[in-house]
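S1.2 Input.
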Amino acid sequence: MRRPSEMKRELAQNDTAPLYAGVKQMILDRIHSGEWPPKYRVPSENELVSELGVSKMTANRALRELATEGELVRIQGVGSFVAERKGYSALFEVRNIADEIAARGHMHEASVIVLARESASPEVADALELEIAAPVFHSLIVHSENGVPVQIEDRFVNPAAAPDYLSQDFTSLTPNVYLTAAAPLSGSEHIVEAAMPHAWECKLLTILRSEPCLTIRRRTWSERHVVSTARLVYPGNRYRLETRSGKVFDE
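S1.3 Output.
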């Protein structure tokens, strides 16, 4: 592995591109050369700031864009890792929960708790790359499998990407189906974390406060524009997220 001084010197030599692009290219060079193999933990934002002398905003943009482009997988509280070269796991695919439930021979139902136009909070505005207080569409939906709640989908949508979002009947089609048609997916970012549920989430999922949940924070892009940011909450004792990679041979 190259020492921090070598990385900093390499970045200085590539001064014709924007600084964040130079950091991206340095990381890509190490991935494509095999120096940083799949599942390798790349330097964190703070480590890049310390080693390269760049700003935290520059480091964040470089890592975020590499995750969007499928080069890295970012896991909250753990770090950023080089993505597997041979395909993507189901865990990090943008899949339709209704199709997953139907594939098991079960019945999918959706309860729409919120479907409204709101002003973007600072956090939502940052995720959607909009101005604070800009209009956004907000949906809060509980997905059930055979009558048992298995996912809370708390989603904010950029109105420019999906202007008819609020007029959809999300009891008969999912936001995934509508958004895929309205703004075809070109990239996504996932952050996975384990967390204890909030009181209101316990009520919607009908679980105890002591039951842990798995949370996925997902952003999706169409071309260069962020389409939506969603927080997906799964009760740990009812739902399992699976991943499979490489070749699997049945007997």
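S1.4 Remarks. The domain at 4-82 is CATH 1.10.10.10 (Arc Repressor Mutant, subunit A).
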